[in-house]
Amino acid sequence: MQSTTTATPALLVKVPLRNTSFVGRQELLGAVEEQLGAQDTAAVLPHALHGMGGVGKSQLALEYVYRHQHEYSVICWIPAEHESLIESSLAALAAKFGITPAGHSSFGVPAADPAVPAVLEALRTGVPHGNWLLVFDNAQDIEAVRRYFPANGPGKVIVTSRNRAWERVATPLPVSVFERQESVELLQKRSPDLTAGEAGRLAEVLGDLPLAVEQAGAWRAVTGMLVDEYLDLLAERSPEILELDPAPDYPASVAAAWDISLERVERNNPGARQLLDIFAAMAPEPIPRSMLRGGRGITLTPEIDPLLAESMRLNRAIRDLSEFSLIKVDPRSDTVQMHRLLQTVLLAKSSPQKRERMRDAAHRLLSAARPGAYASSIEWPAYQALLPHVLTSRAVTSTDAGVRELVHDSVWFLYCRGDHRGAADFARQVWSAWLAASGEEDIHVVRIRKSLSFLLRQIGDVHESIPLSEKALEISRRIEADPADVIDSLCELADARRYEGRVEEARELGEQAAGLARSRFGADDPLALRAVHSWGVDLRLCGRFAEALPLDQECARLRDLLFGPASFLSLNSLNAVAIDMREGGDYHGAWDFQEDVYRKARAALGEKHPLTLRIARNLAVCRRRAGALAEGAELAEETLRRFQDRYWPGHFDALQTAAGVSVDLRLAGNLDASRELAEETSRSFARGLGENHVHTLAVRADLAATLRALNALDAAQELEDDVAGRLAGTVGSRHVTALTVAIGRANTAYARLDFDRAREIDAANVPLLAEVAGAEHPLTLSCTANLSLDLRLLGHGAEADVLRDSAVEGFSRVLEPNHPWLLAARQGRRIECDTAPMPL
Question: Distance between CA atoms of 626 and 592, rounded to whole angstroms?
Fold first, then answer.
């Protein structure tokens, strides 16, 4: 064995309750132990039944866990049919470890939950637990599941699967039906009065399939029915099972055994029987009992409604189903679960009309269990528990308003949790289904259209998203939608216009939306806060930071009160405040503020969550602007790697981060790398946003600074002149980005020894910067210091001294004593400024 037995059993994470009826399988259990001793991974696969369930793969793995729990420090059971289930289990393991989602990861897993890479890294390194066991149960997709293996870690992995292809990548352990004696043992364990001969006859008819044997044993334990009578019942029902169309791919014996129990439950507790049909419409994953308790007050069927209305009746129904092994109850997690094979049987036996009724009932139960705010990480476990059932039950097909609201919230839960691609894919599926069912003027269709448009932009599909936003506002106005929907449509179109580079139009739309929302619903209404936040984004892109700052500060304060300090929305507003402070000239204050925001985001969301990474990107710029060049560069490079790992190098978040890294490389003297990165970033922005977008032009302005440092002055001047002309035609020549570009153009003229041209540009720029940014903004002071150098070389020494002293005194008030710009002003060196693309 790979580990030493200890007195303390393993920490069990999400491990199901032990099967107290487990029998036999001694050779197989020994084989699992032997294979794990020789290999890191063992695959428990079906052997004789062509991949069908019911042979006891999971139960074998579970029994191994309990028999060997003293040989491991931690054991985690991971339902592996869907990646979202894998991630939720690993996140639970991270919580048990006490791991905050931080630290570096060597896995490159683009996980939606930021705790996942952190816990995989902890497993790989063996800290805090070095002797672990992971059980990936029902792992069908080999490549998807293997990405979550902690490669080269000090632990072991068991996989259970119906997919025989696992034999190629793991040591296989085929599991067949019971040996006859094992079937007899189980039946006698459940019914001690059975003779070996009676149990053997029963086992033979059941084909020794463990699941069928367990079902028959449960029936016999409850009813005490004579074996001959039970065999007669099986014989009666088996032909009916074989006549199902399509024919089942499981033995008729297991369906017949279930059929007998189902008939008994239906006779004694019709509501409990109907609950099973509802469960069959959901995923074969744990179903929160809270979902059933939350159904009080909704109307499903005359038989089920009394169960939902009274907890004692509901508990009795659950107990009746559990007695016949139709469901498994886990009191620790307060869930119930149905075997996927029973689900298959129930669905096969139901008419299309009945399946539709039960699916509709499942949808209404899910709707009644709808969690709270999707942006709150506190609610994420509840959304995660419902998500498999939302997907499997095809809740997207429902036209019920409450169900559609749950589906829509589930889309946004995926986004807020960090799964942008998954959210966009789900939103597209939802939009297509709702559009076909209800038409474009249905308000739910309008809303999901806007969500899809937003999410498409988050994954880089800008051109597809714009018409969706435009159409949403047009429809909202045409159908005279509720004011809240019109306001939301205005915000959505403003967001789209930002990606098009039409920033003034976006600002006008944002201001209109914020004004309508605040006057109609009040300043503290969530929709008003959403509109105000959007307006603040518009103002920043227009360079109006002083106007954005009080809006964002108030929005952050109110979101904190409404949603709490750890909310995605609250943290997003705090991030906006830091940008306003920094671009407004308070470099050191913004740095201090953003460090605190970054700490909060890492604690609440994890170090790899997209919002945390955006906050980190802005913090890196804050550090650079405050003079902490090395610290800023280190964080920017790390953030760029993480964005590229999560998405791809051309994703907008990665590009905005790369723009900052190119500046850091120039300041560190790595000019060739700076030029190469800036050129590629500029090309990518141009492809995604267009040649004239302010982001494309800002990166080219910074590229010109690198070219100037490389003494490629002709190329720098040509590039800067082109950027200045394009900015004048889009955001205007008084935009702060245009004025920053002017500082660079003067520096190029100075480097070319054209001091008259440098003085002309700087002299015109200083008063404009003073008016637009403020007289003591570091940009204004930098331009003033540069102008003093122009004048000195033109022979105006006295005037140059006055301007230099003014710049030094101003810098001394707003910058730290060792800031590079202050030192440059004192030493008579040109100051190079840079841009930072604003979040869209």
Answer: 10
* Neighbouring residues of 319: CB distance < 8 A, sequence distance ≥ 6: none
Q: Give the C-alpha separation, 719 to 678, whole Å.
A: 13
The secondary structure of 782-819, three-state, reads HHHHHHHHHHHHCCCHHHHHHHHHHHHHHHHHHCCCCC
Neighbours of 233 (CB within 10 A): 17
- Backbone angles phi and psi of 124, in degrees to 5: -65, -40
Q: Supply the DSSP symbol for 395.
A: G
Please state, in angstroms and rounded to a whole number, the distance separating the CA atoms of residues 18 and 60. Answer: 11
Q: Which of 684, 744, 661, 659 is nearest to 709 (CA)?
A: 744
Q: Are 135 and 4 in contact (CB under 8 A)?
A: no
Sign (positive/negative) of CA torsion 820, 821, 827, 831? positive
Chain segment 138-193, per-residue pLDDT in tens: 888 888 888 898 878 888 888 888 888 888 888 788 888 888 999 899 999 888 88
CA distances from 513 to 473, 477, 489, 520 (A): 12, 13, 9, 10
Where would I find the beta strands (DSSP E) of 20-70?
Answer: 41-46
SS3 category, 500: helix
- Residue 820 CB coordination number (10 Å): 15
Element spanning 156, H or E: strand 156-160
Residue 163's CB: how many other CB atoms inside 10 A? 17
For residue range 248-289, list pLDDT tens digits in order. 555 667 777 888 888 899 999 999 999 999 999 999 888 999
Percentages (nearest 5) of helix, strand, coil residues in the chain? 65, 5, 30
Query: What pLDDT is stored for residue 543 in this prediction?
Result: 96
Amino acid found at 824: A
SS3 572: helix
Residue 533 has pLDDT above 90, yes or no: yes
**pLDDT tier for residue 114 given thresholds of 50, 70 and 90:** low
| 268's tokens | 């004694």
User: What's the CA gap between 203 and 208, in Å, rounded?
Assistant: 5
Tell me: pLDDT of 350 over 80: yes
Half-sphere exposure of 165 (CA within 13 A, CB side): 8
Q: How far apart are CA 70 and CA 170, in angstroms?
A: 24
pLDDT tens per residue across span 604-622: 988 888 899 999 999 999 9
pTM assigned to the model: 0.80
| Four-point Cα dihedral 472, 478, 482, 487, nearest 10 | 50
Give 543-595 pLDDT, tens digit per residue: 999 999 999 999 999 999 999 999 999 999 999 999 999 999 999 999 999 99
Cα distance between residue 462 and residue 349, in whole Å = 47
What SS3 string covers 604-655? HHCCCCHHHHHHHHHHHHHHHHCCCHHHHHHHHHHHHHHHHHHCCCCCHHHH
Short-list 590, 606, 640, CA closest to 99: 606
Specify the DSSP class assigned to residue 185: H
Token digits for 437? 């069912």
User: 406: closest CA among 448, 455, 457, 452?
Assistant: 448
End-to-end alpha carbon distance in the chain: 56
Nearest to 699 by CA among 835, 839, 582, 500: 835
Nearest CA to 119 among 98, 146, 138, 141?
98
**Which helix (H) or strand (E) covers residue 528, if one does?**
helix 526-541
Q: Find residue 136's DSSP bridge partners.
A: 78, 159
* CA distance linking residue 50 with residue 164, whole number of Å: 9
